[in-house]
Write a structure and sequence with these properties.
By secondary structure, the protein is mainly α. The protein has eight helices and no strands.
Amino acid sequence: MLLANVFLLIFGLSGIKVFAKMVEVRKGLLLPVIIMISIIGTYAINNSIYDVYWMLGFGLFGYFLKMYGFQTGPVILGVILGPLMETGYRQAMADQHNSLIGFIVQLLANPLSLVLTLSIVFMVLGQTQLWSKARGCLFHSHSVAREES
């Protein structure tokens, strides 16, 4: 690891002028090169043209998401963390012998789990119209009480 960092430092410092020039390359020249390297790399992983089709399909999907205003960060996090959450959920349900009530009781028994669960519930509820109406009524009643006093 130490040797890798030393070489990274040497190549990084010696190539800084080249890297700075790469930033100035026009997008019209850079994009075809990036697309070709991506296609070659995708094909080289499994030597399968279907992987390239998947890459192009997800690229179009990402383009449409970007075009319609979706944030890419949360989508990528969901794609990456979704399978991990599903695996964790399956293990937790297996520990409770597929009992939903046992799962919920165990989830609320640990103080850390309780705080995290309540935080998630409040974040999800905070995005609903019902929550904003309730919040609006709450703040409206406080402002009316202040005006009266």
